[in-house]
């Protein structure tokens, strides 16, 4: 990856629907070279997918929470992962070191829905402890970290 690739990634980060012609004008590179580089970034797995960013509050999901989850024993790892994969309100799941085994990001429409999700998580075999943190306000929310230009 070089400085041109970084510039292309910045353009796509601002608008993933940008046309190669627009990017080419912005970075002063030929359209065919931009297309070739984008394909190479995709083929190498640097660009994994193109997606959209939703405003969850406008969609009626204004409760955000982070939940720490502890397991009784590592043998319950697979059961837990299978269980949470079926829950669409869990946006992210991180496997951790420390006092808890997992950190879940949950978005939902009400505290009642969060309670239902909490009960479902607690009922997964092997879950021994949870700790839930309500998000009061989101101050920073980047969805990607771009490389510094080389």
Give a verbal description of the structure:
- By secondary structure, this protein is an alpha+beta fold.
- The protein folds into two domains: 3-43, Arc Repressor Mutant, subunit A (Orthogonal Bundle); 63-134, Alpha-Beta Plaits.
- The protein is 36% helix and 20% strand.
- It has helices at residues 3-14, 20-27, 31-43, 77-85, 111-122; strands at 63-71, 90-95, 102-108, 127-134.
- The chain has a four-stranded antiparallel sheet with strand order 2-3-1-4, with helices on one face.
- A hairpin with a 6-residue loop joins strand 2 (90-95) and strand 3 (102-108).
- Helix 2 packs across helix 3.
- The longest helix is centred in the first third of the chain and has 13 residues, at 31-43.
- The radius of gyration is 20 Å and the shape is elongated.
Total number of helices: 5
Number of strands: 4
* Amino- and carboxy-terminal Cα gap: 8 Å
Largest sheet: 4 strands, antiparallel
Shape: elongated
Judged by helices, strands and strand pairing, the structural class is alpha+beta
Q: Mean pLDDT score, rounded?
A: 94
Number of structurally distinct domains: 2
The sequence of SSEs as H and E is HHHEHEEHE
CATH class category label of the largest domain:
Alpha Beta
Q: What is the CATH homologous superfamily assignment of the largest domain?
A: Lrp/AsnC effector binding domain/regulation of amino acid metabolism (RAM) domain
DSSP helix fraction = 25-40%
CATH architecture of the largest domain: 2-Layer Sandwich
Rg from C-alpha positions? Answer: 20 Å
Low-pLDDT runs: none
């Amino acid at each position: 990856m070089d400085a041109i690739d970084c510039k292309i990634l910045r353009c796509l980060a601002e608008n993933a629907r940008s046309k190669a012609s627009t990017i080419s004008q912005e970075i002063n590179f030929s359209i065919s070279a931009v297309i070739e580089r984008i394909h190479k970034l995709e083929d190498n797995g640097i660009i994994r997918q193109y997606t959209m960013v939703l405003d969850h509050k406008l969609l009626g999901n204004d409760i955000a929470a982070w939940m720490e989850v502890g397991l009784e024993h590592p043998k319950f790892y697979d059961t837990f992962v299978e269980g949470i994969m079926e829950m669409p309100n869990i946006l992210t799941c991180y496997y951790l070191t420390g006092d808890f085994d997992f950190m879940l990001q949950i978005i939902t429409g009400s505290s009642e829905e969060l309670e239902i999700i909490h009960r479902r998580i607690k009922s997964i075999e092997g879950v021994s402890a949870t700790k839930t943190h309500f998000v009061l306000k989101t101050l920073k929310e980047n969805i990607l970290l771009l490389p510094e230009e080389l």
